[in-house]
Amino acid sequence: MGNVKAAGKIKSSDRYLDYVLVVLFVLIIIVTLYPFLNVLAISLNDPVDTMRNINFVLPRKFTLYNYQYVFRENDLFGAFMISVARTLIGTGAGVICTSMVAYVLSRRDFYFNKLFTMLFIITMYVSGGLIPEYLLLARTMKLTNNFLVYILPGLVWVYNIILVRSYIDGLPDALQEAARIDGANDVYIWGRIIVPLCKPVMATVALFVAVGQWNSFMDTYLYAKKLPTLQYLLYEIMQQATTKIDSHTASQQLTTTTVSPLSVRMAVTIIATLPILIVYPFLQKYFVGGMTIGAVKD
Amino acid sequence: MVLKDCGTEKKVKQKKIKQKFSWRLMYKQRYLLFMSVPFIIWLIIFKYIPLWGWTMAFQDVKPATFALPFFERTFVGFENFRKAFTDRIFVQTMINTIGLSILGIALETISAIVFALMLNELRYVKFKKITQTISYLPHFVSWVVIASIAKMVFNDGGMIDTLTGKSLKLMSTNSVLFWVVICIINVWKEVGWDAIVYLSAMAGIDQGLYEAAKVDGANRLQRIWHITLPGIKPTIVVLLIMGVGGALNVGMERQMLLSNAIVQDHAMVLSWFSYLRGIGNNNYGLGTAIGMFQSLVGITLLLIANKIASLLGESRLV
Q1: Domain residue ranges in chain B
Q2: Cα angle value A263/A269/A272 (rounded, 5°)
Q3: Are A213 and A239 part of one and the same domain?
Q4: Choosing a second label site near A46 at 20 to 30 A (CA), which of A187, A264, B61, B185?
Q5: Does A107 touch chain B (CB under 8 A)?
């Protein structure tokens, strides 16, 4: 009995830690979410009213004016379509190719297995760097302002190949073997057996690639300014606005104009983030799944 | 054929399969070849040709001379490297890159470990899940969006200035303060995500150890100190090795997006410098030399860190 009591005592003194933790985590959640809510509120608030004080999470004077202005002044729809196109095509192609390479590299009986695996792995440690890559894409291949520049260079990521391969390694051999005895060829085994079994890890890969594609900004900046994505459009608006927005004097002048760069920027920020925010709660488990597969592998 | 296939299949899990090259084998594995050779070609074009581009570091390559065949360009030996190291902004760039890296690695590692420890101790499962879900969110948001938000928060007259009622000039002071601001933004973005690896390492710790410690009367802090932290030590070491290996690879995207003309001196990093000289100033050879220097130092650092870790009896990465 004495022992039990002692154990109970320790627990109650430890319970303070629980309370402290809850308080800390509530603070962390606030710090994480506040900026997003603030951005959303500013984008939905009257621009002149915003200049009074930018700290708020609920619009004080609700208006959709900022969004209307953004859509009127910029080719937001075009940029949105380019973003969607590169995300869909890049992810689709990426997932198919990644699983194909991963399957071949999982076949230890393949004559070139070691050589090809090594060729892929090496590129994780050494890369030519920005300038040779730029010259290859822009000068040698002349992909400037070509949609392919969004798809081809990042078609497969070695990290994802390893992720899928280690997943395939964990599948029972018997399935492949049975199919082979039935006379199935390797393409059939890949398409009909491996791919369906790999759905969970493929979902993870698809999400990694999709987020990478959606968020990508540097490739537009370097190669395809005439094919602006949403991210690049936001960057441009940020550049235009920086000079005006960042000083007090400018914000005072704004009362005379009808639109404020800050409000416009915040509206575009929301548009560029929204797709991720919408899919995020449903898909986040796959991200984490992939992350831990990778961790176990390492 | 079928029997043979089964034979090879059984050996798959064994480490070394000796196969002799034969056209028959190639024919048998023709589908595997079809499925992989296009990607090897892709790999050579997009990864190995740029690597071959390193030769430009030893040549004088400008936009006009780029189209020339390899041997018709002027070879300049190490002239490009000399130019890079004696560049007006080279020293400051190195200081920025290394300073940002060290500060970044330190802050990120500590915050991620503390965050993971806290999550690991949290007993309310539902609350824990919600917290974790929210904490990864910024990881999936692009740097452009983060920069847009960060400027709203840290700029003059921004959120923090308004909250404190002072003019802190967080993003318009040309000093080390800019590094700190960048690193804090980075921690805010990545801490939840970085913590995942530590959390999964913590999940792998033998629960019996905790039970035993409890019986011995250890309180929670003592258990964290004597069981959890030693339990995740190998993970910490591996991530630190990777961090050291990537010490010079401070991304240009983040620096470019978060900086402005005022803080330029403290925002410049090697990758950006390479871009600036290579493409901005149209000196491809010089830009390549800077990139090559960055890459080679990176590999060297990785190997050294790896060696040190193995000498200390820790798990190694490579």
Answers
A1: 84-311
A2: 145
A3: no
A4: B185
A5: yes
- Is B35 close to A104, i.e. CB distance below 8 A? yes
Give the pLDDT means over successive 10-residue stretches in chain B (318 positions): 37 58 91 96 96 94 88 91 95 96 96 95 90 90 95 88 87 91 96 92 92 90 93 91 88 93 92 95 95 94 88 68
Q: Do A207 and A91 belong together in one domain?
A: yes
Residue A173 contacts B, CB cutoff 8 Å = yes
Size of the A and B interface in Cβ pairs below 8 Å? 285
Distance from CA of B143 to the nearest CA of A (A): 8
Residues A181 and A291 in one domain: no
> Is 1.10.3720.10 the CATH number for B84-311?
yes
The reply to whether residue B29 touches residue A131, judged by beta carbons under 8 angstroms, is: no
Q: What residues have CB less than 8 Å from A34, skipping those under 6 apart?
A: A57
**Residues A192 and A254 reside in one and the same domain:** no
pTM: 0.87
